[in-house]
Each structure stands twice: as structure tokens, then as C-alpha cells.
Predict the 3D structure of the following.
Amino acid sequence: MPNKARANLETLYRIFTVPETPDSTLGAVDQAITDNVAGFLQTHIVAIEQSLEQIEAGFSSCAIPEEPTYVSEYTEFVKANLVAQSVHTAAPGFVGHMTSALPYFMLPLARLMTALNQNVVKVETSKAFTPMERQVLAMIHHLVYRFPKEFYSEWIHNSQAALGAVCSGGTIANTTALWVARNRLFAPDGVFRGIAQEGLARGLRHRGIDGIALLVSERGHYSLGKAADLLGIGRDHLIKVKTAENNRINMQALREECRRLQGENIRPLALVGIAGTTETGNVDPLEEMADFAEELGCYFHVDAAWGGPTLFSDSHRRLLNGIDRADSVTIDAHKQLYVPMGAGMVVFKDPTAVSAIEHHAAYILRHGSKDLGSHTLEGSRPGMALLIHAGLSIIGRKGYEILIDLGIQRARTFAELIRQHPNFELTSEPELNILTYRYCPKTVQQKLAEVSPEEKARINAILDQICLLLQKYQREAGKTFVSRTRLQMSRYKEEITVLRSVLANPLTTDEILASVLTEQCEIVRKTEIQALLAQIDPYPIQ
Amino acid sequence: MPNKARANLETLYRIFTVPETPDSTLGAVDQAITDNVAGFLQTHIVAIEQSLEQIEAGFSSCAIPEEPTYVSEYTEFVKANLVAQSVHTAAPGFVGHMTSALPYFMLPLARLMTALNQNVVKVETSKAFTPMERQVLAMIHHLVYRFPKEFYSEWIHNSQAALGAVCSGGTIANTTALWVARNRLFAPDGVFRGIAQEGLARGLRHRGIDGIALLVSERGHYSLGKAADLLGIGRDHLIKVKTAENNRINMQALREECRRLQGENIRPLALVGIAGTTETGNVDPLEEMADFAEELGCYFHVDAAWGGPTLFSDSHRRLLNGIDRADSVTIDAHKQLYVPMGAGMVVFKDPTAVSAIEHHAAYILRHGSKDLGSHTLEGSRPGMALLIHAGLSIIGRKGYEILIDLGIQRARTFAELIRQHPNFELTSEPELNILTYRYCPKTVQQKLAEVSPEEKARINAILDQICLLLQKYQREAGKTFVSRTRLQMSRYKEEITVLRSVLANPLTTDEILASVLTEQCEIVRKTEIQALLAQIDPYPIQ
């Protein structure tokens, strides 16, 4: 073998084999990274503020490096340019999005998952991960539907069925559910060989309808719009139904929309109920929706990506009453099951439902195999189910109950703080552990109740600007973080900009919540915001 | 605070905070798992053979444990029931699927990714991971399209565009590409507001066509069938074009299919070229397909999920000539970029192409933001781009070149071993690093060339059974592993069952390949297989 070829091979062996001595490069790198993360977690709360443009400068070359780089050198780069510039989503003061702290055991188990590098698409590359994933789905199915034990004995490991699918997140979960719904509506029927085979246009022709529609409240997650586009339904037919009090779907409006669709020869494909809206954390009246879906003879899906784990709580479970009547339910594991990013799930009441989207291939996913890939939207997938399994096993039902109860309690405390505070307005009551509010002094709130619609609009527009700046400056300061969104409230004609707080991190304390408001009041003292406030004169501001 | 509540809170703190002392539970668990993986990797080659049914017994309860479990106890469970029963996909003798060994630095970096738990859907939860992911896409885009530097300066971090998308795998990548293709074909046009808005049925009516079709060779990946179903096209209109020599698409047949579709008023939505077929590793004539797509005025997608990294090799890059004329290209990072499971990519020639699938939401993905989630099929996603970035940086172009060259060289060596062996028949020539073969003694091969079609069919059916048993027994023995599939060859009328070998693990040696064949010959001596062989009498078997 020529010298160069031998050297190349040796390089490869070095890269692909784990060094044997404990004080190896691997150990050193691993330690350096671990130390750094620990250091980072201790000293920063959000991220060191650098503008995105500054950060981009470190990631601006389009050329793949020609020569290899030392791992140690790369690690230094990562520490300086990536770790120091990422967002500390696990910080107790990061209460703006749905990413929270992770239980400590998730890290070594995630590492194990990576090291085993199983591919759960097929048993040949996943083995025990296949029954484990099926068990996870059965556990979640049981959490939602509470079927008797015999049901699960029959279906849990049945190759002809699946109680659901583990996937990368809620978007794929919702899309999978609506894909199943669509394909069941246009199932094979006489000469029509089904939509999977013949396509949507022929399906519509066969059923003699001009279109199909999805109905969800205006608080529905944006993934439903993507699904409507992807599945060929069209966003026009994602009907965003008005909400009633507390951001729940207005059943009257829902009925009217369905009547209108009927007049246009558009058939409701599915009603989608929400258990924990992304923006306000409210829960639709699931029982009433289930009744109406039954009346229509239409599919009923519940997007419980956020709120599903409320089922763990003896005190709050009733909020989700009716969820067991859904044909399918989405629950994200990387949200309130405290699993790292990249883990969603959908469960189906009928274990044969997924046959509507079943597919096979000669080299894998053969008929009768237990390969999980034969009924998932994704193909090759990692063994994330291990981390869900670990959470369910180690934290247990009671552990999750504590987490859920704590979050809801904390949201109520925060809501009370906001209500009591002279400078803030609560814009949505927390039903679960999410709430929205805005900077709007009580004096301005009083005026808003009295003035003309035009004056209301003018004041709200200024409050919107304040909200936007407030959120921006707070994010940049990096001490605490809330997000913002736009919301339609019944008491104002126009949409308003509000701050949004998600209270799922068990390390968040009431003191931190108080400090969020204090910091916001300090930010408001900035000249720029003061100038805006002056425009709301003559209402005195505290 | 009541005692119970305090105890609950303390439990939560224990679970969610990293213990400070180094000899902590975390360290112990981490070490136990690391040791165990190392031990597992050393002593087993595939997995300890237990039947799936036996393994299922350990994962049979549908009840979520009521009480928490100790981490140490759970770790013991995982070691015994999961680690010992998983498939050692990184073993050098595991040459049957596309999962291979991982460079050692992937483990600590994957751990870092998990610890930071960024969500790249939006900058607010990903910060530096956003520019990093954009850089990774620019690097892959440049690898494929080689546009001048100025192009990348303009587009790499441009919020109005995206050079592609990082996703969970090739299936999502292919689906994203075809979603873009579909939405561009039915773009807004006069009163028609586009398919995303109005749906597929109205789109077809607007264009005055009866359907749209995808054309790919019969070696196309099964994800294309899923995409055809999902996008409402229907599997009937996924046209699987016959292959010519060496499993490449037959251009004549492709032209004929297009003519036939035209007669039915079906418009070709996209031609899909394959760079590295899943089953045989062959590459379609991409230049010719690009010419034809141009002639048709139709979208051209290349599925280079497997073969894309061949572009790293100066010697073999030419096999993919024409790939730079594709509108989009899929490349999987968890295949030949040696990144852990869960990382795919699609790049688009036109950086504004993704605007066809763009979407927004009030609380994130606002217009003008750099949030990556505004044009991805998935929503929340982990920072897997870090691992791709690490591979490209640490291994470098030349490192990947060595890996590619080595795999192709090894496949040729294996092919030669098979050709020389009296008991095996090579059923597809390796063009890249995948080949297929079967147990079929040379004497039987000679007879097969002479006998009647009926006798051919009879013999092939018996050889199929042998192939099936051979693969099963080898997998169960757990020393080495090849996969199997069904293949249509020009020299036989019927599809045959073949063994499939993927040679991407740099730790696989020529000696291991020789031992794969030796083991197969030993397995054939089993009574069950001998009985089958006797039925191919009077052809003497060695």
C-alpha cells in the first residue's frame, strides 16, 4: 500500500474509533464541552447579546474546508461562536417560549441514543427500539383513551396496526393525523381505488363534492395551514372559526361556517379542537366539538401538542374532557414531557386507522413486518422514543402531575401579579400555564373603556409599539425573556400586540416573575418609550 | 408551605438541576452508560439474538408508572432490555443498511446540542444556530451548484430567501422539494391565487389539466410514493419508469411515458433523477434527464440522499454530472456525511424557490424575520445542523473524499470476490458503494442461461427461498449482516430476491467481506437449505 493511502486510512481509523485511554481526546473534548455548557448555564441567562449580523460574520463562507480541522480547534470555535451565542432556553427566567429545562438524566440517555444510532424505520436497524416505541405509543394512547388492558394486549405489538406514530414534532403529528383523515374520507369504494392511489381531484369527483375543509378556531397552530397546503386542500379551506370568551372556539360560529360550506358543496374533512392554544394556552370545548363532529359524521382531531400532559393531573384533567372522543390526538414530547427537541407524537383511537397511509418497499417495510416505517410520514428516524420512555418511567405519572400543577399554579400567581400591578393589563386569563398581557397602565385601561373607537385604535397602536420595543429591549438585555404575539380580544376591534409568557420551567420562581415585571417597568423609562407614552397623554402614567 | 408540597418541589429541583459534585448521580449514570456502550460495542457484532416476541415482553405494559423510578434502576433496565437488544449499526460487519459508524467527535457534540436544546424554528430560541444552519445549506448548495462567491454573499443570510432546508431526513427533503415543485406549477396567476391558497382541484381546473405526474425510475425511493399520496397527486401518477442497463432510468421509456401522459392530459410535474439508488447504488443519466426536463419545461429534482457526497471525490464526481442542472437536490447527512440519525437536507438552485411554501404566524416566523421555520415542512426542530457543520469542518472535503473513494474501492473488491466465488452471482455492478448478489452456484447460473422460461422461474423461486433463509440465519447469528431486497434484472423475467450490501463503514476490511461470504456458505450447509438446493438437481452444487 502506498504511503499516502496508508496515512489516509490511519486518519480514518483515528476519526472513527473511540480512543482507548481515558485521558483521550474524546474525554478531553467531552469534558471541555461539558464544562463549558455548565459554565454557560451558570453565567448567562439568555445569551450574550450580539446582533445577528455580527454572529453571521462567523458563518459567512460557503466553501467547505478543504483540509481537516483538529477537533480541539473546532471545539474552541464552537465555544466562542455558537455556545456563547445561543439562547439559554433552560434558564428559569426564559418564560417566553415552550422550550424549558431538561431533567438531568436526559443528557446521558440522549448520548446513549446517539451512540447506538438506531434507525427505527425498520426492525433490522432498531430491534428493541421498535417494541419500546410501540410501548410508548400505548402508554400515551392509554393516557388519552383509557381503553381496557385487553385492548392494549391485542394491539400494542400487532404488526397489522399502530396506536400512533412518534415523529419529529407537532407539525408532522398534525399533518399525519389530517393525512389519515383525508385518506379515510376518500377510502377505496367500488371502482374508486382511494385517494392514495388516484389523487385528490378524482376523489372529489367520486364523492361529488367541490372541496374539503378543515375547521379550527382562529387560535389554531400555523402547522394546520401548512397541512392544508401540503395535502392539496388549500388554505382557503382551512376555516379559522371565531373564538368566544377565553379564546375557545365559538360553537355557534362553527355551526354557521359548516352550514355555509354545505351551501358551497364543500365537505368538512375534520374539526380540529385545541387543548392548549399556542398563544394563550386555552382549551376548546372538546365535548361539544365531539358531539358536533358526530352529528356531522366528520373526523375529530385534537391538537394537544402543548396541553396533552394536563391529563397527568388529577386536579386539572377535567379541562380536557372529551379528548377521548377524538379520532386522533397530537402530543409533543419535547414540550411538556420535558424531552429534548425533536419528539412529537400522534395517537389514533382506531388502531387500524393508519392503514389509510400504509406503504411498503421491497428492501424494508415488507407486508406483515413490524417495521414502524410502514405508516409514518418520515422515513429514517432516531430512537427518540427512548427519551420519552425514560421520562414516563423515571418521572412517573405523579411526577408529571406535580409539574403540570405547578405550572398552572404559577400562571395564576403571575396573572394575579399582573392584575394587581398598576402598569399592566392581563389580556388572556391562564387556563393552563400560558398567559398574555401588555404594558397598559390602569389609568389608560379605564380611558380605553370610555373613548371612541377611533381613539381606542390610536391608543392601541401606540401600546403596540411600546409592547414591541419592550420585548425587544428585554430580550437584548438577556436577563429574562417573554415572547410577543398579536391577539384579537372581544373588548377591542383591532388586533393588539401582547406579551406572552409560558410557565413550564419548574425552576422558575415567583420572585423571577416579579422581576420580569420590574425589569419591564425599568425598560419603559427609556426615552424612546417615554416619547411614545407621552402620546397617550393626557392620561397620567405611573 | 405544606410539607408535601415542599417535598414535591425538592424532588423537582433534584430532577431538573445538574448536581454539582463530580461523583454525582449524573456522572455515575453517564459513566455506566458510556462503559456499557463501549462494552457492548466490543463484545457483540450485531445484537444478542432474542426473538422480537421475547423482547416485546419487556415492553408490554400500557400503564404509565404511577410512581417515579430511580435513575440508576432505569439505567439497569435500559442496559439489559434495550442496549443489549439493539443492533450494532456501527459494527464493521454490519454492511446491510445505510447506517454506519460515527466519527467519535459526533458524540460529545450531539450531547452539547442536546444540552443547549435550541429550537431552530425561530431565532428567539436558536440565535447562532440560525446563521450556522444557513451556512451549512450554503456549503451544500455550493458543493452541488458551484455558483460564484458573490451569489452566496447575497443569499446566504438573506431573510427573503433560503438556499434549502435542514430536516429530519430524506423523506421530508424529497417531500419538501416536490411540494415546492407543485406549488410553483400552480403559482398565483391572474384571478387564481395559487394552489397553496385555493387547493389542488382548483389548480388543475385553472391550468385546464386532468392531473399531474411524477416520473422516476422503478428504483425510486419509497418516499416518493408517500409524497405523491400526501400532495394529493395519487400513486397512480407516480410513474415508475423502466430501467435500462445498470439500474439507470431508460430514457426511451421515459419519453414514451411522457407522451402517454400528454395524451391523457396529465402534465409531468417533475422528473426525479436518482444519484445512488437505495437498492443498488446506481446513478441515473442526470445530464440527459436535465435536457429532457428542459425540453418539457418541467421541474427536475435529484434524489441524492445517498450518493450526493460523491461530489466530494475528484475521481468519482463525474458520475453525478448534470446534478447542478437540477432545480433541487436531496442529500442526507445521516448517511454519507456520517452524522447521527435524524439529519436530511434539500437545496434549491433558485434561492427564492421556497417562497412557494412560505408561511407565517403572529408569534413567530413574522415577515422579514430570519426564522428558519417560515419555509420548512417541519416546525420545531433541533440544532442537528451543528453536527453537519462539525463533520464538514473537522473531516473536511478531503476527508470525505477519502471515505467516498474507499467505499467505492471496497465495493469493487467485494464485487470481484463475488464474481470469483463458485457459489455466488453478482446481480448488480457497484457504481458507487452498494451492490447486490445472491447465492447461486456458477453451475446453476450456466443452466439458467439455457433452460426454458418456466424452468428459470422454478429455479429462481427456489433461489429466492434460499436467499431469504440465508439472510435470516445470518442476521440471527449476529456476526455479520447484509440486507435483502427484490430486484428485476434484464436476464430474468421474474423479480428475484437478492442480498444487498452497503459499504460505507471505513472500518470494514476486505477480510470482513471475505468472511461474510464464508459464513453464508456455512449457513447453506444447514439441512433446511440443503433440501431446497436438492430441488435444483440435477445441477451439481459445490
Summary: Chain B has a mean pLDDT of 91.
